[in-house]
Design brief:
The protein is α/β, with parallel strands linked by helices. 31% of the residues lie in helices and 34% in strands. The strands form 4 sheets. A 4-stranded mixed β-sheet has the order 3-4-10-9. The protein is globular, with a radius of gyration of 17 Å.
Length: 163
């Protein structure tokens, strides 16, 4: 979490609006957080070095927007229960999601799509599709409008219907 997402938001809205919104970044990497803190030395932007699996311990307020790029596919995260807890416990009633699912990696200078499953000798897409479709169906059940786009990363965006 080097703050890239916050920088994009800052570029899209007026500075006086940005300064009234509370932003929280959570990451396990001390160096990434140090870089983010240098980029955003503002009172309304806070970064926490913490295990995402125990995010409840931070007692953060519910968020209007949750952005997760590549984090939920980490091997240490139990994806489905964790995603459901984000929706139920950390997202405000009219909040939105942006989830980024890695769909490629570089191997010997070549861009390879898909994921490498332990029992396959090659990349294939079912792991990615399982995660994306689970998120889509779950969020639709919770009355979100869901779109899926992307290439090297697959992005799932979800906004509440009727807002």
């Amino acid at each position: 979490n080097k703050g890239d997402e916050f920088e994009l938001i800052q570029q899209l809205i007026e500075p006086e609006i940005f300064d009234t919104i509370n932003f929280y970044g959570v990451d396990h990497s001390q160096s990434a957080l140090a870089h983010a803190k240098e980029r955003f030395p503002k009172e309304n932007v806070q970064f926490f070095q913490h295990d995402i699996n125990t995010i409840k311990e931070l007692n953060l307020p519910k968020s209007d927007l949750i952005i997760s790029i590549g984090t939920l596919q980490s091997p240490s995260i139990n994806y489905k229960p964790f995603l459901m807890s984000l929706v139920q416990e950390h997202l405000s009633d009219d909040g939105a999601f942006i989830l980024g699912f890695p769909n490629s990696r570089w191997i010997d200078g070549e861009l390879i799509y898909g994921a490498k499953a332990p029992n396959y000798a090659y990349s294939e897409m079912s792991l990615l599709y399982n995660d994306v479709i689970f998120a889509k169906k779950y969020l639709q059940q919770k009355k979100f409008r869901v779109t899926i786009t992307g290439r090297e990363y697959i992005f799932l965006t979800a906004t509440k219907i009727g807002i």
